[in-house]
Design brief:
The chain is an alpha/beta fold and 196 residues long. It has one domain: 3-Layer(aba) Sandwich (Rossmann fold), CATH 3.40.50.300. Helices cover 55% and strands 12% of the residues. It has a five-stranded parallel beta sheet with strand order 2-3-1-4-5, sandwiched between helices. Helix 2 crosses helix 5. The longest helix has 21 residues. It starts with a strand and ends with a helix.
């Protein structure tokens, strides 16, 4: 049985909801928003800063990393945030059974054999439909918001891991929540966690 599940997800795919339900069914601790609180406590950075920058690139292109302030050692606030997040995720993995959402946890815990790494995605129409329903987005903006959020997540992931976000080889399983539905995704994750 796998004691740690990492869930990486496209914005709008329902990955957080799937992760929370899988954790509840397995009786595992669930780390998403409360992970932000732990990072804020440990780092001294504001919750708002961590929410805005913990999983996202500092701009729309990789050039954004060149323009962030750096200290005398060449490290930026983003690098400091990455280190704190990494240390907390490693510590949580040592504490017991858990589901961790995002924050490059699949990469951070890649050498552990007790993990199941999952990527949740969906096609654009399903993601648009979901964020309109959840957040009340209308008109042309849902697609633009989806593309921008997922692009900056992908850039941040590449910058800190040198891997391609969403690439099958980085995960044990990739699930299309638009095709399978959230409940079936939960069933599959729970089943895999118990069987592997």
């Amino acid at each position: 049985m796998k004691k740690i599940i990492t869930i990486s997800r496209e914005f709008g795919s329902g990955g957080r909801t799937i992760a929370k339900e899988a954790a509840q069914r397995l009786g595992y601790a669930f780390y998403d928003k409360d992970l932000i609180e732990k990072i804020a406590e440990e780092s001294g950075l504001s919750r708002e800063y961590i929410e805005a920058h913990g999983e996202h690139a500092p701009g729309r292109t990789y050039f954004g990393y060149a323009f962030v302030g750096r200290d005398a050692t060449g490290n930026s606030v983003g690098d400091y945030l990455w280190k704190v997040q990494r240390d907390i995720i490693e510590d949580l993995a040592e504490k017991g059974n858990c589901v961790i959402v995002g924050r490059c946890a699949d990469y951070i815990l890649r050498k552990r054999t007790d993990c199941l790494h999952v990527f949740i995605h969906a096609d654009m129409e399903k993601k648009k439909e979901r964020i309109v329903k959840l957040y009340g987005e209308t008109g042309a903006s849902p697609e633009k918001r989806l593309k921008e959020k997922n692009k900056t997540r992908a850039m941040n992931y590449k910058y800190y891991t040198d891997r391609t976000w969403g690439m099958a080889g980085s995960y044990h399983v990739s699930l299309d929540s638009g095709l399978l539905g959230e409940e079936r995704c939960v069933d599959l994750i729970v089943g895999l966690a118990k069987d592997l």
